[in-house]
From TrEMBL:
Basic and acidic residues bias (residue ranges): 48-57
Any Pfam family: Cys_Met_Meta_PP
Cofactor dependence: pyridoxal 5'-phosphate
Name of the protein this chain belongs to: Trans-sulfuration enzyme family protein
Residues that span the membrane, as ranges: none
Length: 396
């Protein structure tokens, strides 16, 4: 056993992000697990054990990424070709006719998959609830087979008490932890059975890959997930696994910068006359603030805010220049989108804008948003030059 293996439990998360998933720690070995673009491997001799086929046995790159994500979440991890592949694998563990409770406010892909399954001969029975309503939640989970949580939720930033749901229900509990990341919240420690990540987002962090992961509480559930990946074929690519692992190395520093900026932008937007509401659990007045402060180690880098109407929201998306008008999130670049424009988002206010905060300077982002909202502000393209004396990362 490597000496580092004996130290892992005592290391801070920043150190584990940098150190784990490195492969063999022997002289002459590469610091990074190399990309292995192979589907087929030389067969072992009788009595020996070795990889033979990547869909069945994985690759060194998958192993390294799963070791890191599993360590961060506190359970065995399995990676998939996308976040949707990860979600589908968990749902496929359920027997036909299983009763699934899912949040009204959640990722559109999840709800689409659940609705398709419910309509296709009752693959499962779906009940959609307002998870911010404790009474509605308690009634729904009483006879469920699986409770799916998304906290904070997409895009309303609602927060659900994971421990309370797990304690109140005899069902399996799965938590989409994409917004919080393993650095801010660990659902397995709160009683969940599965944690799901779209590693496309914050873990990868650079908008250059598709990849998902599931972390299970029980080793036998990991074996079942591996079987789903093997027979369904939702395997991650070699390059994608390499990029996700490389991106994860900087997750702590990226998230620290983005989260700090998100908190500042949320406070400024809340005071802006063109903004009617800001949804961000880090704001003391947010209805989810107290629970988020208790359950999480930070409030994340995604916020939503509402303007006058849909046309104004669309105009903001068109007007921004530093922020990018794009549909995904969690990258080093800040992105904004009017989520109600998408099918299946009828519960979302028409004028709501979801903002994923990246690592840009807070003043450049604020100048850009203020200008798009119609406030007089310095041009963000010139402000950066004018403030070149300010050290990167400082927030005057």
């Amino acid at each position: 056993m490597d000496r580092l293996d004996n130290m892992v439990g005592r290391l801070h998360v920043e150190t584990r992000l940098a150190a784990l998933g490195r492969g063999a720690r022997e002289p002459g070995q590469p610091l990074n697990v190399p990309i292995v673009p192979a589907s087929n491997f030389r067969a072992p001799s009788h009595g020996e054990t070795a990889r033979e086929y990547s869909r069945d046995d994985g690759t060194p790159g998958w192993d390294a990424l799963e070791a890191l994500i599993g360590d961060l979440e506190g359970g065995p991890a399995v990676c998939f070709s996308s976040g949707m592949g990860a979600i589908a694998a968990v749902l496929e563990l359920l027997p036909v006719g299983a009763r699934v409770v899912a949040p009204r406010d959640s990722y559109t892909g999840l709800r689409g998959l659940l609705e398709d399954g419910a309509a296709a001969g009752g693959r499962w029975q779906l009940r959609t609830v307002d998870m911010a309503n404790a009474d509605e939640m308690a009634a729904a989970v009483a006879d469920a087979d699986l409770v799916w949580l998304e906290t904070p939720s997409n895009p309303l930033l609602e927060v659900v008490d994971i421990a309370a749901v797990a304690a109140a229900s005899g069902a399996l509990v799965a938590v989409d932890n994409t917004f919080a990341t393993p650095l801010l919240q660990n659902p397995l420690a709160l009683g969940a059975d599965f944690v799901v990540h779209s590693a496309t987002k914050f873990i990868g962090g650079h908008s250059d890959l598709l990849l998902g992961a599931v972390v299970a509480r029980r080793p036998e559930d990991r074996e079942r997930l591996l079987r789903r990946r093997e027979v369904a074929g939702a395997t991650p690519g070699a390059l994608e696994a390499f990029l996700a692992l490389r991106g994860a190395r900087t997750l702590a520093v990226r998230l620290r910068q983005a989260q700090r900026t998100a908190g500042e932008l949320a406070a400024r937007l809340a005071a802006h006359p063109a903004v009617s509401r800001v949804r961000y659990p880090g704001l003391p007045g947010d209805p989810h603030h107290e629970l988020a402060a208790r359950q999480m180690r930070g409030f994340g880098a995604v916020l939503s805010f509402e303007v006058t109407d849909a046309a104004t929201a669309d105009a903001v998306c068109t007007a921004v220049r530093v922020v990018t008008h794009a549909t995904s999130l969690g990258g080093v670049e800040s992105t904004i989108e009017r989520r109600a424009k998408l099918p299946g988002q009828e519960h979302v206010p028409a004028a709501l804008l979801r903002l994923s905060v990246g690592v840009e300077h807070v003043e450049d982002l604020w100048a850009d948003l203020a200008a798009a909202l119609g406030s007089p502000a310095a041009d963000p393209m010139t402000q950066s030059t004018a403030r070149s004396d300010v050290p990167a990362g400082s927030h005057p």
